[in-house]
From TrEMBL:
Coiled-coil regions listed: 37-71
Protein name in UniProt: Cell division protein FtsB
Membrane spanning stretches: 6-28
Top-level lineage group: Bacteria
Keywords: Cell cycle, Cell division, Coiled coil, Membrane, Transmembrane, Transmembrane helix
Length: 97
């Protein structure tokens, strides 16, 4: 005795399979899916590296600013900056171009 599935049962199974495929696709490709998570982690790592580079630059600039402040004056740095920015040279130096 073979029983055949009714049309409503077949439609039910087809709809359930389609919903399962849709949710599986959304879990992988959707806006909060696995691939998006991997992409966000890679972007996060890039931004952390960029932040660290910028923090190092800020620390370097703070050090230079402190070395040229009124409280702590680094004469070698002042001499270097005057030469670079103003194009100054000492009287006993020879410039070769």
């Amino acid at each position: 005795m073979t029983q055949r599935l009714s049309i409503s049962a077949i439609i039910f199974f087809v709809v359930m399979i389609l919903l399962g495929v849709y949710f599986a696709f959304a879990a992988v490709q959707g806006p909060s899916g696995i691939l998006r998570r991997v992409q966000l982690q890679a972007e996060t790592q890039d931004l952390i590296a960029q932040r660290d580079r910028l923090q190092a630059e800020v620390d370097r600039m703070r050090n230079l600013t402190r070395r040229l402040s009124d409280d702590f004056l680094d004469l070698d740095l002042l001499d270097e900056r005057a030469r670079d920015v103003l194009g100054l040279v000492r009287a006993d130096e020879v410039i070769i171009r």
